[in-house]
Structures are given as C-alpha cells and as structure tokens.
Amino acid sequence: MKQSFIFGAVLTFLGSLLHIAIIIGGPDWYLASGAGESLAKQAESGSLYPAFVGSILVCIFLGWSIYALSGAGIIRKLPFLKLFLILIAALCIIRGTYGFFIPVLFDSPYVVNLGVWFWVSSSVVWLAIGLSYAAGIKLNWSYISAVKT
C-alpha cells in the first residue's frame, strides 16, 4: 500500500538531485535539461538567477518527497496532506500528458532543439511520478483523509 508513495518520493527526490546537478553542471546542463538557452546564457555570464530558479525546484521536489512519505505513513501526517498530494498528482499527470504533444503542436527552435526524445522521455517520467502519487492516494485514501487528532 505504501509502495506507490515511496516510489513517488524516490522519483521526486531524484528530481531534486538532478536539479542540484544541473546547477553544479552549469550552462551545458541547463541546455540539456530543457531549461532553455536564456538560463544557460545567464549561467554562463555568472548570473545567480539560474541557480536561484534551480534551487526553488530542488526545494519543491524535496517537499513533494516529504509529502509522499507522509502519505505513506512513514513520517508524521503533514498539514493539508490530502490537498497537496492531489495537487502534486494532478500537476505531474498534466505535465506528463501534455509533454507528448509539445513536439507535434509547437515548431519553435526551443522545442526542436530539445528533440522528440527529450519530450517523450521526460513525459514518461512525469507520468510515472503522477500515477504513483495517484495510486498512493487511492490506496491510502482513508489514512490521508482521516482528521488528525
């Protein structure tokens, strides 16, 4: 029952580690990750803005991991647990779904440079995360819905 949330927690934790690696890796890593040429150029010029944005994403993904562990009952129940888990699952599923259509719908240099492989592979990962959170919600509904006393 807990495995879905644990899987989601691991994936989002790995996402936070990836974003740390992107910050450390610099401009080429920003480009390869899909962050865009603008952020890569800013990183190359020494701007702290790309690292700031990346750090925010690291914190978000770490927070998601913590909420997944809370949903699994591994750590204490966090505030707004059910709401946040539903929002995380929905955001990930939406991103995973629309990502498959990006290469077909948009012919911008940004989309073309990243290539179909990037959009398909990243969409598969986002869907895996979203579906694992959704499965965790379904399997643990009574636990995450119970009022904390």
Describe this structure in words.
The chain is an all-alpha fold and 149 residues long. The chain has one domain. It has helices at 3-25, 27-33, 37-44, 49-71, 81-99, 102-105, 109-139, 141-145. The model has no long low-confidence stretch (mean pLDDT 92).
List low-pLDDT spans.
none
Multimerization state? single chain
Q: Which percent band covers the strand fraction?
A: under 5%
| Fraction of helical residues | over 70%
Note the gap between the termini.
23 Å
Q: Calculate the mean pLDDT score and round it.
A: 92
Query: Main beta sheet, described?
Result: none
Number of separate structural domains = 1
* Large-scale geometry: globular
Question: Helix count, per DSSP?
Answer: 8
Rg estimate, integer Å: 17 Å
Counting helices, strands and paired strands, the structural category is mainly alpha
Order of SSEs, N→C?
HHHHHHHH
- Number-wise, the strands total 0
